[in-house]
Amino acid sequence: MRILLGVSGGIAAYKTPDLVRRLKRAGHEVRVACTHSALELVSRTALETVSGEPVLFETFTPRVHAGVEHIDLASWAELALVAPATANVIAKLACGLADDFLTTVLLACPAPLWLAPGMNTRMWDHPATRANVACLVERGARLIGPDEGELACGTTGVGRMSEPERIVEALQAHHARDLVLRGRTVLVTAGATREPLDAVRFLSNPSTGRMGVAVARAALDLGARVILVHAHLGVKVPAGVEAVFASSAVAMQGAVLSHRDRADLVVMTAAVGDFMPPETAPGKVKKEDVGETWNLTLVRTPDILAGLGQDRERSGARRPLLVGFAAETAGGDQDRLLTLARQKLSRKRCDAIFANDVQVPGAGFAGDTNLGLLVFADGRVHPLGPGTKDQVASALLSEVASSPGIVAAPPLP
Ligand code: C5P
Questions:
Q1: Of 123, 147, 177, which residue is a domain's last?
Q2: How would residue 34 be classed by pLDDT, with cut points 50, 70 and 90?
Q3: Number of structural domains the chain divides into
Q4: pTM score, two decimals?
Q5: Is the CB–ligand 1 distance for residue 276 below 6 Å?
């Protein structure tokens, strides 16, 4: 792989010749771009010797290669790794600043970005750094470390750049993964629908869409193209997906149907409202006109997943593969959860249901974690979690991706 190594001015910069050597030994091509302060901590000659390439750090210097240096390098790179990534460089990347060679090349670089932060614990813990890191991770950047240990300032804590050996291991492990969904399109739904009563009121639920967004991210990670049909989210839409907004159950059904034919796999993670007012009052209903009690009549929303299951059965098609989610109250009883999941599977005619018991701590809406049973129509049952929603999402997709329906069918054109 062609790796652009960005070195910023953390003390751990002195370890980067070793990092370059290890990356090259692992078979990668490496070119180094530095900040000026990095060159106070590591010798340019050492980096040029181990990389076999000129180290770039000046925005306006006579050119080493023909063309515009930072654009050439940005286009050349298949992966950008910043190690050590200081609080300063992280802040600049989060804001999109390009006031030196390194940040200019990174801003122009479309390749995946990996960061190995290295800084003092208090700088790492500062809310500004936390927010900048969260912003970059949300845009798709990956973090290696920082680790806990002795810091240059003499204290001990989190902030130490991961050792070069561990950085190379993390990159190798990621790239050795089987991109089992490469060439496939996954349609994921996420978030809470809103069923409007009038111009200012709606019925909804507490879903934040975190699980659906985690599924979308996991699908991207496995190499898929992802269409994210989302209602209202409490988290950001991840970079790299084709996002389609649909506020209500009816709108979501329309969006799903219009993209279904492009999908190899549909994962319905959205918390779709089950009932809606038969019509929406055009303006704001005045409470004076309603009186003390507002008796609402509600009708069922379309069951999107069941509709997809029915259509597929009617047409005899094998695709898209359909996976549903089911939030159940089984009081911690796994057998009951399994029974409920199997009933839902056959009612919705889908291939798998991930059922979670919202009465079990660590499962369900709003939180960071999840656990439950992934139940396949062919009888397989896989307990997933407890783990973060990201971990559960990738375990779920890895299981689904190895299903005969996906493995046997060639990708859609
Ligand atoms: O029937 P229940 O709401 O428990 O089923 C949950 C599953 O069905 C989820 O995958 C959800 O996204 C989907 N669903 C749907 N249309 C609805 C309600 C739920 O597709 N109207």
A1: 177
A2: very high
A3: 2
A4: 0.75
A5: no
